[in-house]
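writing this on my phone so excuse typos. first protein, seq and then structure
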Amino acid sequence: MTADDEKFDALIAEIRRSLPGGQIPAEVPPPPPAVPAGWYPDPDNTAGPRYGSIPGLRYFDGVEWTEHRAPMQRSQQRQPYPAPPIYVQQNVVAPPVVVNNGGSGLAGLHLLLTFLTCGLWLPVWLLIEILQVAGDR
């Protein structure tokens, strides 16, 4: 037995002492694959030209890509995204609001008379409006 073999045996004995039960597992199972095995769109798309430019599928065994290829069915092909809907905003113009606050509707005439008489009509206009308000009550 060589010195390297003795070191190796000592290392194995130390590992056995540190493990519960003193047993070294015969084989550690591999971790489950991150991506499950199955048919996926071919990353190389080498099957496309072979099948009339239809994108192809390739089998992934969970670890690596295999050489198994198949054409993608028409229903499995990637469809382009539909166009976004177009929203049309219609500007609706409301009719003008007419406010009638109970006046006689002759304010324009009273204003004209006030200007034509250089303000002499203003007291008459105010008197008419005061009498109208008093009459409405």
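second protein below, same order as before
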Amino acid sequence: MKVFRLGRTCSAALLLIPAVLIIFTVRLALGASEGESGGVTVIPDWSVIIQIANFIFLIWVLNFILYRPIRNVLLQRKQKISGLEESIQSSNMDLQEKQDAFASAIKEARIKGRSEKEVVLAAASEQEKKMIEKINEKAQADLAEVRDQIIKEAAKVRKSLLKEIDDFAESISKKILGRTVR
């Protein structure tokens, strides 16, 4: 909107400046003719009015043909730039919102992953304890079985040694004493 106000002000100024210059020039010419000679004498007549009308007509034509289209193009460019700036700002806001949402989703995923990891570790720890208990029970059972087997074998060996103890005692005493003992 400021473009139109500026344009109207400029048009009025363009019309006033030549009118003031013409009046000033006429006064100078009239002042020079009243005093001593030596200057160019200009006497305003009806041709000055035609020149002023011609100048105003040219200003109007130039405004219609040249200035107004240029101002319209500048206004459209300004509107396009402001529209692009708004779209840039909205895109930046959307980008920031998406980055925030992405960051919060990553944070939530990490928290969820950590909790799931803890659950899995707890389950694995429980399973490990159960496996260790089973292994310990099996090892205890195997150990008891081996002990029973050793006890049985020791009993067999004892029985066989008890049968032969008399023979061993006799042979040891014979070797120690050098004679047979009865």
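The mean pLDDT is 83. thats all i got for now
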